[in-house]
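Q: Can I borrow your eye for a moment on a structure tokenisation matter? Would you mind producing a protein record, from residues through to fold? Write it directly below this note and I will take it from there.
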Amino acid sequence: MGPPLGVHELLHVFSFLEARDLLRAAQVDKVWNEVSGTKELWRQLCLRRWSSCKDSQVTRGTQTWKQYYLCRSELDFRVESGRPEKDLSPCRAQRQVCSLSGEIAKLAYISPNEYCFDRREKSVVCTASSDGTVRAWNLHAGMEIWSSPLQPDALVNLVTYPQLQLVVTVDAQGLIKVWEAESGRESASFCLPTHSSALEASDHPEGPFLLAACADGTLYTLTVPGLQLLSRVSAFPNHPASLLCSPDCQWVFTLAQDSDLSPKVFHSHSLLCPLEDEPPVSTALPIGLTSKACWAPDEAARLVVVHRDDNGVQWVVTTYELGAKKSRDAMNVLVQQIATFNLPDTMMPPHLMKGHGSQVVLLVSGSELVLFTIHGLRLAAFQDHQQPITSLCVDQSRVVTSSFDLSLRVYMWKKGNKFPVLKSCYHLLGGSHRWASGFTQVESDSMSIVGVEARSAGTSILRSYYFQLQRD
């Protein structure tokens, strides 16, 4: 028998092992135990299994890469299984959060959506209600953290900046306010001339900013947290607009609602740093009668749009790549069409749309969820809901849908040979149809799922679920 392998030789051999084999190797003797727990071995396992995994998620807390791998593997199993009382539990935050005359207009997480397993993680959401209050909720503890003073007008929208711990709301009159997420203290305000049709939060490399679209088609760009006006541009005169920031925050997509006007794309730097007497850098896409749009989350500037064809008859999905070319005199927007396909004639026009990765688009039509590649290959279709789907939450691990049938549906992504595979897992049921009219919104982070359940009396409650982990 030859001499035992040294530490470096063992490290080389162990680098080819999976997690289960490393755990077995740790039981051989003291040397194997120490080598099998080497940081770099478990770091590489994490990065191979979860492409979104970041060093900051481990170094920020007290967990090791091994602890991270084992905890997240357990979490993935529990999210996929969804067994009551074993994998997830209803939180006590299932209570009415607004007055008898109000309902939740918007829900958003204020806690960072990162996987952290050092016992300090906490899922916190904020709600804006038509009764004029903004509130913060600890989903794990199932309790309200704070509630703002009653505002004069109903709150109609909300966005959050988790890294800055800030919440931004807008009321029915167009009054925008910034709230500190830890205390609920109001820190800034800005009044739009008309009510707002859209809010969009952006963490731009040059600094965070807020986009607000007015009902008259004007787009406002404001600093955060001070809400100082940076620019104001008329995007679609007399037409309310919707807004979408690209994943790299370099582009802003604007769409005129209920109009055949061509959508526009703005270069965000020109909104942040406008030049005197010069319009912001933008271009109109060569399409009309646009319905929905989304960005591909794994690409810096890949835009997917649902629109009518040139004859105004067939629904078409077109994908563009955006770029900017700077010349001596100006900045020009480059738009390249990279894919297009027609939706089936039997498919109703989609009312919800999200992207996944760089090649997959999810469309919701009525109660059906359909997955296509950007080139038109139909990957899957799900008809798990009995009534129309009202909200769609998509991340790199899972998809959650809400419906008027008083259920939330959980799906998990799996690696396929060429394209990701979506697996339907289980339902999370809401309350009684006697008291409730269905779920209207759903959001999810790494540890929890929360939905807004509309009540027959015109109020709302939160129904939330927290995934349980058994940690040493």
Q: What stands out?
A: Residues 93 and 142 are 4 Å apart (CA to CA). The longest helix spans residues 65-81. The chain has a mean pLDDT of 87. The longest strand covers residues 315-326.
